[in-house]
Write a structure and sequence with these properties.
Layout (H helix, E strand, L loop, with lengths): L2 E7 L6 H14 L4 E7 L10 E4 L32 E5 L4 E2 L13 E5 L12 E9 L6 H8 L3 H4 L3 H11 L11 E3 H5 L19 E3 L6 H6 L16 H4 L2
Parallel strand pairs: 1-2, 1-4, 2-3, 8-9
Antiparallel strand pairs: 4-7, 5-9, 6-7
């Protein structure tokens, strides 16, 4: 069975090399055949092995919404359903893959997402982190209908795209979270707490399949031991080198 993965790229935040890095990472960890699809506004520089699909328009918010990943919701556009079908795992471009992701396709038949790492930060404890999620690409989850119904008020009602998406799924009884530590937060699950972080090297949990770099540090910073908040110092993680510099 060919596993189908998808990513998004728009604007200038991530270059094509990040898409290519994700493809090589999947080649390294995956067991069996897979396909990576990139939904993007600029295919230049992306390797031929990645299937490129033009990114659709985002209703109401338009195409210049760069903050907080709102354009990630274009994955649920009706225009994409004839082109992308079946069970699909979405991956952010800055995740680091550690192990095969085959279990991500069998955990839940409808939708699964990361449980947010810091619940008290959000107004709603059910919010997930959409750095990695499973969905059926040609299924109508009502995401665009809900966007149109709320109009521009969507950005007042929801802090970001992942809060909105999880609420759409929650209201349908579809909101499911990955098992704890499958998708580990680098700064919360890998970096030791202070003061041990001053001398202990960050390490991933044994059951982690994916490392998520939300906020700071980013993977290259974690490799060098930089980019963390002043109150969360961390050591370099040399084991990340072959995973980041592919």
């Amino acid at each position: 069975m060919k596993r189908q993965f998808i990513c998004t790229k728009w604007g200038t935040k991530y270059p094509a090399s990040e898409v290519n890095r994700l493809f090589r990472a999947l080649t390294r960890v995956q067991q069996g055949a897979f396909e990576l699809i990139c939904v993007t506004d600029d295919a230049q520089g992306i390797v031929n092995e990645v299937r490129v699909v033009p990114i659709p328009d985002l209703p109401v918010l338009g195409n210049q919404v760069m903050n907080h990943g709102w354009r990630k919701l274009t994955l649920f556009a009706p225009a994409l359903r004839p082109q992308i079908k079946g069970p699909t795992v979405y991956l952010d471009l800055d995740v680091v893959l550690l192990k095969p992701l085959n279990d991500f396709f069998t955990f839940d038949p409808a939708f699964a997402v990361i449980k947010d790492y810091k619940n008290l930060r959000y107004r709603n404890s059910w919010t997930g982190n959409t750095s990695t999620f499973f969905y059926v690409a040609d299924r109508d989850y009502g995401v665009f209908d809900r966007l149109r119904a709320l109009g521009h008020a969507v950005q007042d009602r929801y802090r970001n795209e992942q809060e909105f998406l999880c609420d759409v799924m929650r209201q349908q009884g579809l909101l499911t979270y990955w098992p704890d530590k499958w998708c580990a937060s680098y700064k919360y699950d890998c970096v030791p707490t202070f003061p041990w972080s001053l001398w202990q090297t960050p390490q991933p949990p044994p059951q982690a399949r994916v490392l998520v770099f939300h906020g700071n540090p980013k993977p290259e910073e974690a490799l060098a031991g930089t980019g963390a908040k002043w109150y969360r110092p961390m050591r370099p993680a040399p084991w990340l080198k072959p995973l980041v510099e592919q």
